[in-house]
Design brief:
By secondary structure, this protein is an alpha+beta fold. The protein has ten helices and 20 strands.
């Protein structure tokens, strides 16, 4: 599933769109002890409009993540094809349209038994059908040629308990102490999934898309134990490992100029291919070439290439995960943010045995906390 496929789905994901039809919704509330308090499966017509609008928003947010960060595609390993395993449970649920109570019970039990979650939560699964019109070479729709894409979207929303407090009582026209406790379902899911993925404008039952509101903190129990997939590194972990590769391979030659140069080249590479269907990834050859162009020796550039290839195995890191929007220097309580191409104004010097960071000023205008600083 690429950016173009994602954009197409998002475009039609609203209640008023005739091409996107919500057929059924399963709702379930699970407390902190993994006990189900309520569960229901309702058709589109059985859900009040006000509630339906909120549910649409919840499901839509699962598709709004950034590919490769908050929205990551996973391939199902072979063993989850088996009966009562993750992929099989999802497939049976989709095929039977959540009408089979036994199959629905199997799936919910699988989720509640395998998902680790700190808070009570509401779990929603929507069954959708999107009518996909075929297109010609000019990207124009053929209204006489179409097929249906059936899919499920799951969303996990935390349930927060409202503590007792003061409220305004309209009947008594006074402020009184609230004596009941409300449990409010958050309208922003922390996790979710799309099955099957929408790939090449059609279903791919061998892949599932996992959504995390916090891309830095994905729920690995959902990925591995609920969906049955092998966890792929988060964006922050990719960046951390990439830094470790360069630090180990380049060593003392990893100075400010090399770091800034590599970052700039990754940024340029990400921008050059930003409109491509597939997000650009950083290959081991690109790592070597970037380091060579940044002044690193052939030996160290090739060492970095080899170490990077061994680190990533068969999953190259995404360029957007590695690029920094600015260069940040941190040392002994001092932080300096450098934007754009201003890194050439920063140099390091050794003076009388001490290391100095020096900033070249093309203009004498320097402000500190908004004050104009005087340079003697």
């Amino acid at each position: 599933m690429n950016k173009k496929d994602q954009t197409e789905l998002k475009k039609h994901f609203q209640k008023s769109d005739d091409l996107m039809v919500l057929k059924k919704i399963m709702t379930c509330f699970i407390d902190s002890e993994k006990t189900r308090k309520c569960q229901s499966v309702r058709t589109f017509a059985q859900i009040p409009d006000e509630e339906l609008s909120v549910l649409y928003d919840i499901f839509a947010k699962v598709l709004k993540g950034t590919l490769g960060k908050g929205l990551v595609e996973y391939a199902f390993p072979n063993e989850v094809y088996e009966e009562d395993q993750s992929q099989n449970l999802l497939w049976e649920l989709l095929q039977k349209g959540m009408q089979d109570e036994e199959q629905t019970e199997k799936f919910i039990t699988h989720v509640t038994n395998n998902m680790l979650y700190d808070l009570p939560y509401a779990f929603f699964v929507g069954e959708f059908v999107y009518t996909v019109f075929e297109k010609d070479k000019s990207d124009r729709k053929n209204k006489y040629d179409s097929h249906e894409y059936h899919f499920l979207i799951g969303a996990v929303c935390p349930v927060e308990s409202r503590v007792d407090g003061l409220i305004y009582d309209e009947e008594e026209n006074t402020i009184i102490r609230k004596i009941t406790m409300d449990r409010v379902v958050a309208d922003a899911p922390t996790d979710g999934f799309l099955f099957p993925t929408f790939t090449g404008r059609g279903p791919d039952v061998n892949h599932v898309m996992y959504y995390a509101k916090k891309s830095k903190d994905p729920n690995t129990s959902i990925i591995e134990d609920v969906l049955g997939c092998k966890f792929i590194l988060s964006a922050d972990k990719e960046k951390e490992l990439f830094r470790a590769v360069l630090d180990q391979a380049v060593g003392e030659d990893l100075n400010l100029q090399v770091i800034a140069s590599v970052n700039e080249k990754i940024q340029d590479y990400a921008k050059a291919f930003k409109d491509e269907p597939e997000p650009p990834v950083v290959s081991d050859i690109l790592v070597r070439d970037m380091l060579l162009d940044s002044g690193v020796t052939q030996e160290k550039a090739e060492a970095a290439q080899k170490l990077y290839r061994e680190t990533v195995e068969d999953h190259y890191f995404m360029a957007s995960n590695l690029a920094e929007s600015k260069t940040t220097l941190n040392a002994d309580g001092v932080t300096v943010n450098i934007s754009g191409d201003a890194t050439d104004k920063i140099t390091t010097r050794m003076i009388d045995g001490r290391k100095f960071l020096m900033i070249s000023l093309d203009s004498p205008d320097v402000t500190v906390n908004g004050f104009q600083m005087k340079i003697q």
